[in-house]
From TrEMBL:
The gene is txxe 2014. Pfam families: Hydrolase_4. Residues 73-163 form the Serine aminopeptidase S33 domain. This is Dipeptidyl aminopeptidase/acylaminoacyl-peptidase. Keywords: Aminopeptidase, Hydrolase, Protease. SUPFAM superfamilies: alpha/beta-Hydrolases (SSF53474). GO terms for molecular function: aminopeptidase activity.
């Protein structure tokens, strides 16, 4: 009997240790090197998020692409998990050509920014808040005309920050998850691991490693906030949000956004793209994004 108890305890301990190691492994994004550089004039900007060094680029339209020498409206672009600022230049180039200044940056534990022990969606939220505050102080930027475009986890972080009072005029998301559980299910499927019961276990490992109380995450209901905000916008209030999703996204299924848009008037666009990071290749993406920004940022310079 004693031997059975000891064996069971050892098995439980081994399973717990395995879950902890798996949680730690999945919580460390792959650092990808900075590749492509901006085609337009840019400058490197260094700042901090919660005391950790961050690196970004401020990219400006050249003189021929703007209608005046005055401050420009700006779009802050937030990349997703395992990405970096050079990999979201696919959004930046068309925006700069449309006359907007653009600020791209590396989230913590990504690109050339400093590291944290346990990145989470809340880290992405804090990094977006730091990036917006930094960009608003840069010369030539109109701090009263800033929007955020977030891809994947960057989109979730943007929504979290926006719901908490981020001082921007509008937010655009591209292939963004609306819950941490969606992210976990995607990661487990990618590794060919069972979603149940690992999703619940790994979530708690992530939060324990990050020092985030479980109750703090459970109180976040982003689908409900998106739906309620859409109703408020229809009534003349709320915060402008445009949500875009690829119909062929294999990482974050489009059904999550469909379920929200089915019950609330969320401004959205589904684009015909087969992948998680290629929505902008469908002309419908820019047919939605540029008019949305023009409405809420009062336009950039004339398109070249």
């Amino acid at each position: 009997m004693v031997g059975w108890v000891i064996g069971a305890a050892a098995a439980i301990a081994a399973a717990g240790g395995g879950a902890w190691m798996l949680g730690a492994k999945t919580q460390q994004p792959k650092r990808r090197p900075i590749g492509e550089l901006p085609r337009a004039p840019y400058e490197t900007v260094r700042f901090e998020s919660e005391g950790v060094p961050m690196v970004g680029w401020l990219i400006r339209p050249d003189a021929a692409g703007t209608d005046s020498g005055g401050p420009l409206p700006l779009v802050v672009i937030a990349h997703g998990w395992g990405s970096n600022r050079s990999r979201v230049l696919r959004y930046a180039h068309p925006l700069v050509e449309a006359g907007y200044a653009v600020f791209v940056y590396d989230a913590r534990s990504h690109g050339e920014s400093g590291s944290v022990k346990a990145p989470t969606g809340l880290m992405f939220m804090a990094d977006i808040e730091a990036a917006v505050a930094t960009a608003a102080r840069l010369p030539g930027v109109d701090a009263s005309r800033i929007a955020v475009l977030g891809h994947s986890m960057g989109g979730l972080g943007a929504l979290l920050a926006y719901a908490g009072g981020l001082p921007v005029r509008a937010v655009i998301t591209d292939n963004a998850p609306l819950t941490i559980e969606t992210i976990l299910r995607s990661e487990l499927r990618r590794r060919n691991l069972p979603v149940f019961p690992l999703a619940r276990i790994i979530l708690r490992v992530w939060l324990l490693r990050a020092g985030v109380p479980y109750r703090e995450v459970r109180r976040i209901d982003m689908p409900a906030w998106v739906a309620a905000n859409a109703e408020a916008v229809r009534g003349g209030g709320g915060k402008p949000v445009l949500m875009i999703h690829s119909t062929g996204d294999p990482v974050i299924p489009a059904e999550e956004l469909r379920s929200v848009t089915a019950r609330a008037p969320v401004e959205h666009r589904f684009v015909d793209a087969q992948g998680h990071s290629c929505s902008e290749q469908d002309p419908a993406f820019w047919q939605a994004v540029l008019p949305f920004l023009q409405r809420h940022l009062a336009g950039g310079g004339p398109r070249r």
